[in-house]
C-alpha cells in the first residue's frame, strides 16, 4: 500500500513525465495491436471459403511482411521503454535514498500508464472505429505494394464475370464483429508483451542494483 501511495505521489509531482510515459504506451499499444490485427486478418482470409483474392504464396508473403513489422515494433518499443525506464530512474534518483524502492515505484508507474493507455485506446477505438479501419486499410495497402505483378481484379470462379477488387475494403471479407474480436485479442497480446517487458526491466535493474551494492561493500 505504501508503494502504491508513493507511486501516486510521484505521478502527481511529475505529471509531464507520466504523460510522456502514457503517450509512449499508447503509441506502442496502437502499433502492436494494429499489426497484430492485420496478421490475424490474413490468417482469417486464408481459412475462409469465400472468393480467394490471393494465392497461398501471396498470403504467406503478406503474413511474413506484417509479422516482421510486428517483431520490429516489439524490439523497438522494448528498447524505447528500457531507455525511458532508465531515464526515469536517473532523474528521480536524487529525490530518494532507496534505489530498490525507486525501481518498483517506477515500474508501477509505467504499469499504471499502460493501463490508462489501454483504456484510452479502447475508448478511441469505440469512438473512431471507422478512422481506425481506414488506418488498417492503409497499412494493408502498404503490404500489397510489395507485389509488383499483382492484378487489380480477380474473377469469381474465373468464369462468372464477377470481378472482385484486390484492394477492396477489409470489411468486405470480415464482419465488424470479427474485426472487433481480432482487435481485442491483439490488444490483449500487446498488453501482455508490455507487462512482461516491464517485469524484465524491473528484474534487470534490481540485479544491477544488487551487483553494484556488492561491489561497493567490497
Q: Any overview of this molecule?
A:
Helix 1 packs across helix 4, helix 2 (15-47) runs antiparallel to helix 3 (56-92) and helix 3 packs across helix 7. This protein has helices at 2-13, 15-47, 56-92, 99-127, 129-144, 170-173, 176-217, and strands spanning 153-155, 163-165. The chain starts with a helix and ends with a helix. With 218 residues, the protein is mainly α. The protein contains seven helices and two strands, in the order αααααββαα.
* Mean of pLDDT: 84
Gyration radius from CA atoms, angstroms: 22 Å
| N- and C-termini, Cα separation | 34 Å
What is the H/E string? HHHHHEEHH
How would you describe the shape? elongated
Please outline what is shown here.
The chain is mainly alpha-helical and about 220 residues long. It has 7 helices and 2 strands; from the N terminus they run αααααββαα.
Summary keywords:
218 residues; elongated; mainly alpha; 79% helix; 7 helices; 3% strand; 2 strands; two-stranded antiparallel ribbon
List the helices and strands and how they pair.
Elements: H1 2-13, H2 15-47, H3 56-92, H4 99-127, H5 129-144, E1 153-155, E2 163-165, H6 170-173, H7 176-217
Antiparallel strand pairs: 1-2
Amino acid at each position: 500500500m505504501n508503494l502504491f501511495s508513493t507511486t501516486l505521489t510521484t505521478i502527481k509531482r511529475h505529471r509531464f513525465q507520466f504523460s510522456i510515459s502514457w503517450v509512449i504506451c499508447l503509441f506502442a499499444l496502437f502499433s502492436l495491436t494494429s499489426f497484430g490485427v492485420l496478421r490475424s486478418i490474413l490468417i482469417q482470409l486464408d481459412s475462409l471459403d469465400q472468393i480467394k483474392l490471393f494465392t497461398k504464396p501471396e498470403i504467406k508473403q503478406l503474413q511474413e511482411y506484417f509479422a516482421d513489422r510486428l517483431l520490429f515494433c516489439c524490439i523497438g518499443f522494448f528498447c524505447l521503454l528500457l531507455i525511458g525506464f532508465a531515464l526515469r530512474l536517473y532523474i528521480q534518483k536524487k529525490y530518494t535514498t532507496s534505489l530498490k524502492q525507486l525501481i518498483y515505484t517506477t515500474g508501477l508507474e509505467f504499469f499504471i500508464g499502460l493501463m490508462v493507455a489501454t483504456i484510452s485506446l479502447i475508448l478511441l477505438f469505440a469512438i473512431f472505429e471507422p478512422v481506425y479501419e481506414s488506418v488498417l486499410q492503409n497499412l494493408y495497402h502498404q503490404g500489397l505494394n510489395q507485389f509488383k505483378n499483382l492484378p487489380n481484379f480477380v474473377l469469381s470462379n474465373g468464369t462468372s464475370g464477377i470481378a472482385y477488387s484486390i484492394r477492396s475494403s477489409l470489411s468486405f471479407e470480415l464482419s465488424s464483429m470479427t474485426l472487433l474480436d481480432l482487435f481485442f485479442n491483439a490488444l490483449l497480446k500487446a498488453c501482455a508483451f508490455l507487462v512482461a517487458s516491464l517485469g524484465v526491466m524491473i528484474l534487470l535493474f534490481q540485479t544491477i542494483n544488487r551487483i553494484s551494492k556488492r561491489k561497493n561493500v567490497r
